[in-house]
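Sample log: Acyltransferase 3 domain-containing protein.
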Amino acid sequence: MVPLDPSKKPRNSFHWATCIPASCSPADLKVALDAALQPLRQRHEVQLSVDVDEKLCTVAQRMPLSTADIAVLTVILLVFGVVVAASFFDMAIYRQRPAGDERPLTRGQEILMAFSACTNLEKLNKPDPTDDLGILHGLRLFSMVFIILGHRCLFSYGGPFFNPEFLEERYRKIEDMFLLNGTLLVDTFFVLSGFLTCFGILLEIHKRKTLNVPMLYLYRWMRLTPVYMMVVAFYATLFSKVDSGPLWKARVGLEQERCVQNWWTNLLYVNNYVNADQLCMFQSWYIACDMHYFLLAPLIVIPLYKNPKLGLALLAGVTSLSIVIPFAVTYVGEYSGVLRVYMSLLEDPPSNEDYYAVYIKSHNRAAPYFIGMAAAYLYGILKLSDIKIPKGVMWGCSLAATVVGLTSMFGAWVFYIPGREYFAGENAAYASLHRVGWALTVAWVVLGGCTTRFGVLQPLLQLNAFLPLSRLTYCAFLTHGAVQLYTLATLRQPEFMSFPKLFWMASGDITISFIVALFVHLFFEAPLGAIQKMLLRKKPANRPRNENAPAAVHMADAPPPPPVASTPPPPETSTPPSPRETTPEIPDNPDEQQSSV
């Protein structure tokens, strides 16, 4: 019988693979299996049913390329050719000019140079002019690494493996909440995104005394969308042609169907509301949420700058509302206080009601973003006043933040206790407050690390080696799901799960994901970002020989490089914190200063 405990994997279902002639259909196999099992039914008086899913049938033949496949492949090959040509022009011609030749590049040469892999690699590794917000690089990279680890657990536990009791035991152990409640790590990115968005817009308003909000929205959409839609196009076309296996059609084929039908929801950033149970790219809900919050951010930050009392009231109001809404949704809908990652959910998260109706909705995930915005405003005040937090306060707040963060993370254990009575108020309170607790912890790490600093922890989070990797996290976020889906869909036999095995597979996921991310960045993200800046700037800039502008790599699941800024002298009027007058030139587009997750 099917167990009543949802943490248990049913033992009454067997998956049996058989090799048959290609001329036989799934219906033929079902008839044959029914006939073969009939004597067993009669002899032992058991009920046996046979289901042959056509998606689990694989034929050894090459799948023809469709028109869409050819179009996407053509784009990739053309871009590859342009990158090779641009890199050759950069290294063999442009950088070999005589020392006195300072003629500016033509617009066509500028566009060509935007595709130079050599120049874009240099930008990727270029240090920030200031390390005021350098701690964000480490936070972003480590969060991305742990998210990939969590998604490895999702794919492995949601696939075939020999020992389901390994995971069933995990649900009983409080120490395993680090993985089972690891969805909190996503809120780290929301905090960083809100922090950098608010701070970047404040910088822009202080510099120009105004803000072109429609242009800001356009720039944001243009900055994120091309590389995002290129990955979606790969999912919808070529991905299904890469390999094969018993699970290939059921996993990769299903993902392709969803992307073919719903790519437009990703394009419009409404995929976490429209056809959310058929989500294309299971992790893409995060990009939609962040875009929604970004649309609200200027409406809060502009009053925050011009009328701090009104701005703070607005920020407090939307933050309070973002706490109340998930409470109400959970209480009224009688949902669990935490997304319980049972094996039934892991097999296909987008089809699970708790996932598509609660977990991925923007109105349920907004609190960490607004807490990040509040942290940015407080950071500006501290920098403006040149306030250093006393060591005693640092230790006390760090201890409190640790307790709050650990409570938020490991408190989910009570919702995994089998047979425990459901209390609507308890679940609703945890649903609304545990993300707030985690966000406050992350916000304190950012504030403490960017002002007084954390001693031994600071050099680790600001390690120079992390800088290029942290700038690749957007592309890694977009591509790591395909890497992990590929390993699952090509399985020929079940895995035997253990923690060393999971960490070994996650290490491979991390390595391959960042290698793929590097190519996506060099082929699409960096060139298109450079061209976009050329199109939107007011005056064409004369590029001197061998000059490399600071990189502004943006991400949709993790914030981009921190803004290059410090603190200004107090302005004549009452305004929020802004950069010093000696701060390096702020880019024409404020989105370069903040997160695009």
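Observation: The CA atoms of residues 196 and 594 lie 4 Å apart.
Observation: Confidence is low (pLDDT under 50) at residues 540-597.
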